[in-house]
Structures are given as C-alpha cells and as structure tokens.
UniProtKB/TrEMBL annotation:
Domain Protein kinase: 84-313
Family annotation (SUPFAM superfamilies): Protein kinase-like (PK-like)
PROSITE patterns associated with the record: PROTEIN_KINASE_DOM
InterPro entries registered for this protein in UniProt: Kinase-like_dom_sf (IPR011009), Prot_kinase_dom (IPR000719)
Official protein name in the record: Protein kinase domain-containing protein
Source species of the chain: Pseudomonas asuensis
C-alpha cells in the first residue's frame, strides 16, 4: 500500500497531458505503468563544457560531470574509475548503465552538497519503481537519499539523482581496512564489526518499514566518510515483505558476510570468531526460538555481547 501511494503521488506530482502506457505491469498494483515525460537534456558542448544539463520537471537542474577536473577529483577524493570512453564513474547498479557524478545547479560549486551521484537507467519503468521505493521508505539516515528523477524522451534514458556517499561502498570500505598496514589485527576487527553493525542496522530499518531489500550485496551498502554513517541503497528490487520473507533475507545477509567479508578478514589475519557467531545467528542456528524470529533485532539489542551464549537478556 505504501509503495502504491508513493507511485500515485509521484505520478500526480508530475502529471502531464500525454501519459501513454509502457506495456509494463506494476508488480504492486497489478496495473500498467503510465509514462510521464519529466525532463529534458541539453548538450553543453557548444559552450565548451563536457557534459549536459538535465532539467527535471521538479524545477531542479543537474550538470553531468563526465570528465571532472583534477582539482574536483582531488577535492572530493573521488575514486579514479573510468569507463571505456574515459568518463569518470562512481559505480554501477542493478538495471542501470552506471552511477556517475553530477552537480546540483541550484547550489554553489563549493557547497558541501553540490556534487551528487547520478544513476542512469535505460528505460523508464525501473527508474520509476526505484524512485517510488525511495519515496515509500521515507527519510531515514540508514537509506541513501534520492533527490530527484528525470525521464528524458530524447535519449530514452532516465536519471535518478542521489546524495553522494563519500566513503564508497562496503566492498571498498572493508578492503581499505584490511589492507591498511598501520592497523593491528584487533583494530581491523573493531572497524570490521563496526561496519557490520551498520549493515545490520540498515536492513533492520528496511524490515521495520515492512520491506525487504531484495538484492543483498556488499556493494549496496555505502559509507559516508564525513559523518561516519552507513546507509543502504539500490532499491530497484525492494518490495513489501512479510516476516518470513524478512527472516529469509537475514539469512542472505549472513551469506554475504560469509562470502564477502570472512575470507578477506582471514587473509588480513583478523580473528573471525565473533563474525562466525553473527553469521550463525543470521543462519538461524541459535536454539532459542526468539532469536530465530528476529535475528537482526536480537543481534543489535545485544551487540555488546554478541557471542551466542549471551544473546538472550
């Protein structure tokens, strides 16, 4: 219901006279998805600027940053990742071409929030659903915040603008911890567990909203270096879920920890006993039925004593 309301709110907000149907079916309402034409894209090459100005019907405009200057890359401490065309990319996401950099045209260039992440979709439906999921989930520091969306008919692409998480995704964050030679193994373990606590908190926040994420992946968790905040993003497969489905997703999170974190921790000579206990709880191996009913909640409630024998207060 929350997602359907968000979709309707989004469509009403950007209502236009011409709204042909795409033929795709909304899995939540069962009805066809209407197509709103919400923006335009202006090439800026005639002004000597590499990039485009994307105008969302919300009234905001964003300047794409395909090839930002060295000064911007260094000031924002951006990863030096480039595609085959030499354009800087921040990452990639499910059903998207890439995640790149853009500048909010409404803010001064030196403003802390001037530079945002821009997710490009080929086609309208997935962008509309993902943006609606952001709206339905609401404003929560555990969720990456969506700022705007634009559907441009001239290039048959959609663009979603989001806050830029300055610390990168979970994979990059943990790799940096494990390879840092200045850190002792016990210090690496503490930082690893702090990140894991953040990932648990993110998924708990989604489940408390009545949703499941639908795509548990280490690259869908993000860190903000400035605020030391952890948030979850990429809601393209997120759906409303019942408690049984949420418990299954907690197991998927345990599988992610076992697959993506545990081997790297062992290679860095980090003690994984506490991590193994966390994975066991998420897998449902604890004998107490209360733990099996809410494994993530129990872990967070008893984080100071995460060994299984001490989980129940």
């Amino acid at each position: 219901m929350m997602l359907n309301n968000a979709l309707n709110l989004l469509r009403n907000r950007f209502d236009t006279p011409q709204r042909p149907q795409t033929g795709a079916i909304d899995p939540h309402s069962g009805g066809p998805i209407a197509r709103d034409y919400l923006g335009t894209r202006d090439d800026l090459s005639s002004a000597g600027i590499i990039g485009s100005k994307i105008n969302a019907e919300s009234g905001h405009a964003y300047i794409t940053q395909e090839r930002p200057s060295v000064h911007i890359v260094e000031r924002l401490e951006l990863p030096r990742n480039y595609d085959r065309n030499g354009n800087l990319i921040l990452g990639s996401g499910t059903n998207s071409v890439n995640i790149s950099l853009a500048r909010n045209h409404q803010l001064p260039e030196d403003h802390a929030n001037a530079y945002v992440a821009m997710k490009t979709f080929v086609g309208y439906e997935q962008a509309a659903l993902e943006y609606a999921n952001h709206q339905a989930l609401g404003d929560n520091p555990r969720f990456v915040k969506a700022l705007d969306v634009a559907h441009v008919t001239s290039d048959e692409c959609s663009y979603m603008f989001m806050e830029r998480m300055t610390g990168g995704d979970g994979k990059a964050h943990l790799e940096q911890i494990f390879r840092e030679r200045a850190l002792r193994p016990d210090e690496k373990k503490e930082l690893m567990l702090d990140a894991i606590h953040g990932y648990l908190s993110c998924l708990k926040a989604m489940h408390d909203k009545g949703f499941k994420h639908g795509d548990i992946d280490i690259k869908n968790f993000f860190h903000d270096a400035d605020s030391h905040r952890v948030a979850i993003g990429d809601f393209g497969r997120s759906r409303q879920a019942n408690p049984a489905q949420q418990i299954d997703e907690a197991k998927e999170l345990g599988m992610m920890f076992n697959r993506d974190i545990r081997p790297e921790a062992l290679r860095a000579r980090v003690d994984t006993k506490d991590l193994d206990n966390i994975i066991g709880v998420l897998y449902g191996s604890h004998p107490d039925p209360r733990v099996k009913e809410d494994p993530i909640g129990i872990l967070l409630k008893n984080w100071a004593q995460i060994q299984p024998n001490y989980l129940i207060q």
